[in-house]
Amino acid sequence: MGEFTGRIAIDRPATEVFAFLSDPTAMPRYLQTVRKVEQQGPGRIAMEGEAQGHSYRDEGWIQVDPEGRRMRWGSDRLKDYGGSLEVTEAGSGAEVSLQLSIVPEPAVAERMEREAGAVDHAIRIAMERTLGAIKAACEGREDAPRSADDLPDSRPFGSSATLNPDI
C-alpha cells in the first residue's frame, strides 16, 4: 500500500485535457464517488459524494500549475491521502499521468481485501476505471460514465491505460 501510478493516452489536445481536469467542478464526471465539488476560495475545495452506501463531505487543498499542466491535491481529514496528475503532449493527443498516495483507514482496507482480494488490487482497479472515465469524458464519448456502475475497465483502451505499462 502507499504509492500508485497510472497513465492513459487521450485523443484530444493536452491543453484542452488539462483545462477539463483542472476544473474541480468537472470531477463528478470522472470520479465515481463524487457528486458535487465546490471551490471554497483559492486552493480550497469541498467535495460531497457517496461511497459504499455512505454519504460523505470532505474538504481539502488543490494546487494547479497551468504552465506545467500539473495538479496536486490532498485532504484535510485523510492525512495519508494525496495525489498529483500531469498532462503531457503525446503524438497528436495527450497523456494523463496519475499518481496517488493513500493508506486506507482500517475498516476501508478490510472491505477492499474482502471485495478485491487485496487493498493494492482494489486501488489499482479504481485507478484504471478513473483513467477510463477521464478518457471517455475528455473525448466526449456518448458512453461517458454517469455512475459507479457505468465506469469502464480501461483495458479496452490499450496498454497505455494499464497501471503497468509493460503489460
Written account of the structure:
This protein is an alpha+beta fold and 167 residues long. It has a single domain, classed as Alpha-D-Glucose-1,6-Bisphosphate, Chain A, domain 4 (2-Layer Sandwich), CATH 3.30.530. The protein contains three helices and seven strands; from the N terminus they run βαββββββαα. It has helices spanning 14-21, 106-116, 119-138; strands at residues 2-10, 34-39, 44-51, 54-65, 70-75, 81-90, 93-102. A seven-stranded antiparallel sheet has the order 1-7-6-5-4-3-2. It comes from Belnapia rosea. InterPro entries: Polyketide_cyclase/dehydratase (IPR019587), START-like_dom_sf (IPR023393). Pfam families: Polyketide_cyc2.
Which SSEs are present, and which pair or pack?
Elements lengths: L1 E9 L3 H8 L12 E6 L4 E8 L2 E12 L4 E6 L5 E10 L2 E10 L3 H11 L2 H20 L29
Antiparallel strand pairs: 1-7, 2-3, 3-4, 4-5, 5-6, 6-7
Helix pairs in contact: 2-3
Protein name: Polyketide cyclase / dehydrase and lipid transport
Organism: Belnapia rosea
InterPro entries: Polyketide_cyclase/dehydratase, START-like_dom_sf
CATH superfamily assignment?
A: START domain
For the termini, the CA-CA separation is 21 Å
With strands numbered from the N-terminus, the spatial order across the biggest sheet is: 1-7-6-5-4-3-2
Which geometry do the CA atoms define? globular
Summing up helix and strand content along with how strands pair, one would put the structural category as alpha+beta
Please estimate the helix content: 10-25%
Mean of the pLDDT scores?
A: 83
Strand content: 35-45%
Radius of gyration: 15 Å
